[in-house]
Amino acid sequence: MALSVSTSFDRLFKHRGILLLWLTSPWLCLIQADDYTEVLDWTLTGQYEQSLEACEEKLENTSVFNEQWYLLGIKNCMHLGNYKRAFEILQDGLEDRKVSGIKLYPVGHEVALWNNQPDLAQEYLDKSAPYINSVKWSNVGPENLVHLGRAALKLGVDPRVVLELFYDVGIRATPPLREAYVAAADLALMKEDFAVAESTVQRGLENFPEDADLLFCWAQALKGSSNEQMGTMLNRTLEANPQHIGAILMLADNAVDAENYETAQELLKQAQEINPNHAGTWAYEAVIAHLQEDPDMELEARHRALQAWPGNPEVDHLIGRKLSQKYRFKEGAAYQQTALKLDAGYQKASIQLAQDLLRLGEEEQGWQLAEDVHASDGYNVTAYNLVQLKSVITDFTTLRNQNFLIRMAPDEAIIYGNRVMELLMEAKSVLCAKYKIELEVPVIVEIFPNQSDFGVRTFGMPHNPGFLGVCFGNVITANSPSSSIGRDTNWQAVLWHEFCHVITLNLTKNKMPRWLSEGISVHEEIQRDRSWGQHMTPDYRQRIMRGEMTPIGSLSGAFLNAESGEDMQFAYFQSSLVVDYIVEQHGRESLQKILVDLGDGIPVNEAIGQHAAEVRGLNADFMEWAQSRASQLGETLNWDEPEQGLISSSEAEVFLESNPENYYLLIESSRQRMQDEDWEGASLLLSTLLDRYPDQPGLDGALYLASVAARKLGKHQEERQHLRRLAAIDGDVSDVYRRLIAMAREEEDWEAQKLNAERYLAVNPLTSHPYEAMAEAAENLNNLPEAIQARRVILELNPTDPALAHYKLARLLDATGNGEAKRHVLLALEEAPRYREAQTMLLKLRQESMTPDTSTPQKQGLPHMDSTLEETGKKNSRPEKAVENETALENPPSRP
Predict the structure, then answer these.
(1) Which residue has the higher pLDDT, 318 or 867?
(2) Which residues of 507-526 are buried (b: 16+ CB within 10 A; e: fewer)?
(3) Which of these, 163, 358, 677, 768, has the minimum number of CB atoms within 10 Å of its CB?
């Protein structure tokens, strides 16, 4: 799993360097600050040293007792990491009683902490309390209220009270205060209420356009939900203030996520040039050192991060959070526990630890910790979401054996829970043997019918940025087929994919790049079923032939920096291609050895070089191999892409005359002829296209379109041929399976009917149609246990004719000698008392129960069912049977 960021961080990095050079030009230092507004603007635009120099000049003037110069001087020192000088300015202002402490005491709390004086920090906080308590009856100015509000939060004042009595006053002031908007946005971010933070920032920017701090708050609010906009906000932040360390660290954070550690370290050095003592920069250095298996550097970087303030819990929290994002949940949890030893009340560490424990399967502790955070802070959104989710999961049905613990919604567990267990058991048997690993603990699998619940369990928030399933190691979360994901999806392929992650993450101890993990999972999907996984498409072909693939060493970044869903899917496809290439060229054993080396802490490039080829050479050979494979797709077709607008134009056929083998013109002309109901013309073009490119998946591909045209022309054998081919290569086309079921029934091809019912159930197991088909096929194949199981499921799906459903199940049970048949006959009669066939069966069963049977029990044949009755549902005054409409499959889909 990953998120995408569209901004080009390399371009942004270079752009920032140009602005930084301009701002540090010698002539700029000659500017004289005549008033506070101008000097404040220097601070807000990153000219900290120049601003500090002006502040020092003002503070040397003994006649100046304006508190704002002390505050601005302290702010500049804190930006530059000169914590000692910040403390001196603070002391000068407070001890000599030159100014009031109404603003300096709240600020003094932070300054004292960064000078490793926690007792004094608490003293300053306590001295802020009288000012805070007097707010309701004294006339405190808006600027003072912002500072007091920050102190009030640290003293445990209700966040809503702080927002209303402290920050909103500054927002409503004339003119409004930018500091009030920033403080309110910070509060929303602290409580993880990103929607409120975003709206606050937007209102603030109406009054303070291009303010760097507000723009940065917006970027933080967008992280993880809209990364394209987040990148834009970071860009704007650094244009407004090129020395904004928060924005620089977000870029470094993104580079770490993309496994681009060299770029991340360059950014960290840039931040350290501004503030060599910034704890965040050294915390990120520790993260990178951990990921690169350098424990000595990790300890040294952590020590540097804690040098100024040894009790700072944010350092260990940040390190642990990033490690958890890299799926190092055990290490991440350990860092959160260390953070809580420094500050037991540090809720950011508590809620992160709760999520880590839940992802590790340590559920009792994880849920309890989430409840504790919620009890102490009702405004923490993640804690609230988790507590609400727990009540949902508590009501789930649990299916378990020694290998798996599966949680599902009760109604869904009854319907297809056994299928989930069977599939996972097969995956475990196949993949554990293939990768030579034994799993030590049962794997937890949770399937959510509500996307929001899936989002909370997976990300802590109810949004879902396009994921069908996620694996954390020994915990899998997945969307149920009933969730509104907007398209047909093969849930069996999803679970197979995620369980493959269980194998590879355990084998490597979670020490593997994302591209390799995803590539192996997609590769194994296709090994299990050709219709699963990612396949070469016209779009992928063109991307590869245009040289748009990402170098292997940077491939994990392709997931993060994807600008669209298509880009994300191509990242999955390319990753699987690399795995295909390694297996094809160097053998499956080499892939196994690479994974073992990763688990031993060997860097991925070194492991690949040891067991396949040096990555740089491998990358060049792979690119050539991939282009060769891509060129084989429709190799006799012309793949020149027509000019923009031509494809959807009615003139496409005119151009087709001069380029009769162009893929794009052929497929578009076929669609246009189908829209004009020129079925013969469309069929001719599609036949030409399929001769050159026979395996086109999807409902917008030539195979499906050709099946529609064939059906319109009454060519049912040809239609069946196209649909069978499509079903064999596409695991997500339930409409195709439904049509094939209908065609198999017409021909009484029970094996084909059963096969396509199974395919249908792999996409949607929550509708009765495939179970009806399965029951009918199984009955005709004399597989009565399978038919009985299908009939039982149909009853769970609230059939439109429950009397008929009970009667059909009773017939099957009676044929196997199961005494439960009588119960279902009675239930049928309860629904339809005048149901004659059910009455007849009930009499028969009573007579049999009254007649002693001394012979060996034998299976009985199925009792006769009046075919007219089954078709009309009207005989004997039974309720009319509602018949599901077959999907017409007659209207060709519109172009995507």
Answers:
(1) 318
(2) bbebbbbbbbbbbbbbbbbb
(3) 677
Which H helix or E strand runs over 407?
A: strand 404-408
Per-residue model confidence (pLDDT) at position 90: 94
Q: What does the pLDDT read at residue 40?
A: 96
> Rounded to whole angstroms, how far apart are CA atoms 91 and 83?
12
CA gap 279, 284 in Å, rounded: 9
Token pair belonging to 649? 């134009």
CA distances from 224 to 141, 257, 465 (A): 37, 12, 8
Q: Are 194 and 382 in contact (CB under 8 A)?
A: no
Do 181 and 171 touch, CB atoms closer than 8 A? Answer: yes
Structure-token pair, residue 856 = 């060996």
475: nearest Cα among 325, 359, 324: 359
- Residues 212-249 as b/e (b if ≥16 CB within 10 A, e otherwise) read bbbbbbbbbbbbebbbebbbbbbbbbbbbbbbbbbbbb
**Following DSSP, what letter does each residue of 66-87 receive, concatenated?**
-HHHHHHHHHHHHHHT-HHHHH
Q: Per-residue DSSP letters for 490-551? A: -HHHHHHHHHHHHHHHHHTTT-S-HHHHHHHHHHHHHHH-TTSS----HHHHHHHHTT-PPP
Angle at 875 (CA atoms; ends 871, 881), nearest 5 degrees: 45
Cα separation, 97 vs 77, whole angstroms: 21
In angstroms, rounded to a whole number, what is the distance separating the alpha carbons of residues 800 and 211? Answer: 62
Give the pairing type, strands 404-408 and 443-448: parallel
Looking up tokens 């398209």, which residue turns up?
487
Joined together, the tokens standing for residue 237 give: 């932040």
- Chain centroid, CA 764 distance in Å: 22
Q: Which helix (H) or strand (E) holds 690?
A: helix 679-692
CB 231 within 8 A of CB 5: yes
What tokens appear for 196 in the block? 């409120």
Tell me: the pLDDT tens digits for 680-712? 999 999 999 999 999 999 999 999 999 999 999
714: phi > 0 → left, psi -120 to 50 → alpha, else beta; which? left
Beta bridge partners of 128: none
* Host H or E run for residue 470: strand 469-471
Q: Are 320 and 332 in contact (CB under 8 A)?
A: yes
pTM > 0.85: yes
Instruction: Check residue 638 and report its DSSP letter.
Output: B
CA separation for the pair 462, 454 (Å, rounded): 7
